[in-house]
Amino acid sequence: MSRQKPLQLQLHLLLFPSLILLSVGANGVTPVNSTSSDLCPSYDCGDGVVISYPFWYNNTSTSPYCGYPSFGLSCSPDNETILRLSSDTYYVKHINYSTKTVTLVDADVMGNSCPRVRHNISLTSLVPQLRYPNYTTSNLTFFFCCSRFPQAYLNNYASLSCLISGQNQSYVFSSDAIPETIDWYRYCKDKVVTSVMRSAVLDALLSNTSGFSRALQGGFELDWGSLVDCRACENSGGRCAYNTNSTKLLCICKDKTGIWKRCSDFNIFLEN
Ligand SMILES: *[C@@H]1O[C@H](CO)[C@@H](O)[C@H](O)[C@H]1NC(C)=O
Ligand SMILES: *[C@@H]1O[C@H](CO)[C@@H](O)[C@H](O)[C@H]1NC(C)=O
Ligand SMILES: *[C@@H]1O[C@H](CO)[C@@H](O)[C@H](O)[C@H]1NC(C)=O
Ligand SMILES: *[C@@H]1O[C@H](CO)[C@@H](O)[C@H](O)[C@H]1NC(C)=O
Ligand SMILES: *[C@@H]1O[C@H](CO)[C@@H](O)[C@H](O)[C@H]1NC(C)=O
Ligand SMILES: *[C@@H]1O[C@H](CO)[C@@H](O)[C@H](O)[C@H]1NC(C)=O
Ligand SMILES: *[C@@H]1O[C@H](CO)[C@@H](O)[C@H](O)[C@H]1NC(C)=O
Ligand SMILES: *[C@@H]1O[C@H](CO)[C@@H](O)[C@H](O)[C@H]1NC(C)=O
Ligand SMILES: *[C@@H]1O[C@H](CO)[C@@H](O)[C@H](O)[C@H]1NC(C)=O
Ligand SMILES: *[C@@H]1O[C@H](CO)[C@@H](O)[C@H](O)[C@H]1NC(C)=O
Ligand SMILES: *[C@@H]1O[C@H](CO)[C@@H](O)[C@H](O)[C@H]1NC(C)=O
Fold first, then answer.
1. Residue limits of the Wall-associated receptor kinase C-terminal domain (predicted)?
2. On the chain, which terminus has fewer CB atoms closer than 10 Å, C or N?
3. ∠103-109-114 over CA atoms, to 5°?
4. Mutate which of 60, 62, 68, 245 to test ligand 3's pocket (most atoms within 8 Å of Cβ)?
C-alpha cells in the first residue's frame, strides 16, 4: 500500500522528460519565482476579497486542495467570503497577503445594530497557524443580563442600553481591565470574550450602544504563520497541498506535484 503512490509518481516523472532533465542538475531544481496564482487557482466570491494561497476556495469538490487545512473559504449566498470553523461563521472582510493578516467579522454581529455576541473567539486555539496580533487587536469581555451591578457604574460605565432586559443590565469591559468590585460571573447570566480592533476599544467602552456595535462590525485582525511542515516546500518555491482524505502533505511545484518535502527533492525521490 505505502509503495503505491511513489510508483505512480515515478511513472508520472518518466512521462515527462523535461523533469528528468531538470533532475540531472547538480542540486536539484533552480528555485522558481512562482507566485501562488501560477501554482494554485485564486477565486473571488464577488466581494473583492481574493482567495489565494494559503487560503483556498472550498467548493466541496476541491481535493486535493492547495492551501492550509482550515483555511478553506466559501461564498455566502450574497457573494461574501466566509470562513466556517466548527460551529462558528466569520465574514472575511480583507486579506493582506504581504502582511499576512486577515480581517474577520463574526457573522452573529454582522449588520445588527444591537449585536449580542454569542460565542467566545476560539479561532487561534482551533487553528494554530492563526495568531493574535497584540498591537492591532484587543479583547472585550461582555457580561449579559446582570441582575446586580454597583450603582456608580450606571454613570461611570455605559451599560449597553439596547440590551437592557427588565431591571437587568449588560456591560462591556476591556478584557484586561474588568472592574473587580462585584462578582460579574455570579450576577450575570452570560460572559463572552470577543475581539475587536484595538483602535475601536475606546469607542466601544464610551458610548452606550452605537460604540460597541461599531466596534464589533469593524471586526478584528489575525495574523497567520506558515505551517511548519510546509516551510521546506514553500521556501523552494512550491505550495503545500492536502488531500481531503489524508493528512499526507503534497508539494506543488512548477510543472510537477509530488509527496516530496520540497521542490528540489524529486531527484532524491527518484533514487528511492
Ligand atoms: C526572481 O526574483 C528575484 C528577486 O525577487 C529577481 O531578481 C529575479 O529576476 C526573478 N527571476 C525570475 C526568473 O523571475
Ligand atoms: C471548484 O473549484 C475549482 C477550482 O477553483 C474549479 O475547478 C471547480 O470547477 C469548482 N467546482 C465547482 C462545483 O464549483
Ligand atoms: C468545506 O466546506 C464544507 C461545507 O461548508 C465543510 O463541511 C467542510 O468542513 C469544509 N472543509 C474545510 C477543510 O474547510
Ligand atoms: C452573486 O454572483 C453571481 C455571479 O457573479 C451573480 O449572478 C449574482 O447576482 C450575485 N448575487 C448577489 C446577491 O450579489
Ligand atoms: C497590506 O498592508 C500594508 C501595510 O499595512 C499596506 O501598505 C498594503 O497596502 C496592504 N495591502 C493591501 C492589498 O491591502
Ligand atoms: C467564554 O469563556 C469564558 C471563560 O473565559 C467562560 O466562562 C464562558 O462561559 C464562555 N462563554 C461562552 C458563551 O461559551
Ligand atoms: C500577546 O498577549 C498575550 C496575552 O497578554 C501573551 O500571552 C502573548 O505572549 C502576546 N504575544 C506577543 C507576540 O506579544
Ligand atoms: C485575546 O483572546 C485570545 C483568545 O483567547 C488570546 O489568544 C489573546 O492572547 C488575547 N489577547 C489579548 C491582548 O489579551
Ligand atoms: C435578570 O437576571 C436574573 C439573573 O441572571 C434572571 O434570573 C432574570 O430572569 C433576569 N430578568 C430579566 C427580565 O431578564
Ligand atoms: C446612553 O444612552 C442614553 C439614552 O439612550 C443617553 O441618555 C446617555 O447619555 C448615553 N450615555 C452615554 C455615556 O453615551
Ligand atoms: C474520499 O473518501 C470518500 C469516502 O471515503 C470517497 O468517496 C472519495 O472518493 C475520496 N476522495 C478522494 C479524492 O480520495
1. 162-256
2. N
3. 135
4. 60
CA-to-CA separations, 255 to 17, 22, 32, 39, 91, in angstroms, rounded? 12, 11, 11, 9, 34
Q: List the chain domain ranges.
A: 4-100+225-271, 123-223
79 in contact with ligand 4, CB cutoff 6 A:
yes
Question: Please, are residues 264 and 236 in contact by the beta-carbon 8 Å criterion?
Answer: yes
Residue 104: predicted pLDDT: 96
**Residue 263: φ, ψ to 5°:** -65, -25
CA–centroid distance, 259 to ligand 4, in Å, is 38
Element (H, E) at 22: helix 17-24
- Confidence grade of residue 38 (pLDDT, cut at 50, 70, 90): low
What pLDDT, in 10s, does the model give residues 194-228? 999 999 988 888 776 788 889 999 999 999 999 88
- For the four alpha carbons of 77, 120, 55 and 218, in that order, the dihedral sign comes to positive
Nearest CA to 219 among 74, 52, 89? 89
Residue 78, burial from CB neighbour count under 10 angstroms (0-12, 13-18, 19+):
exposed
The protein residue with its alpha carbon nearest to ligand 7, atom 9, reads 134
> Model pTM?
0.79
What's residue 205's pLDDT?
A: 82
| Nearest ligand, measured from the Cα of 195 | 8
* Ligand 6: centre distance to CA 240 (Å): 35
**Backbone CA torsion sign across 83, 97, 233, 126:** negative
Q: Is the CB of 158 under 6 A from ligand 10?
A: yes
Q: Residue whose CA is closest, atom 10 of ligand 6?
A: 192
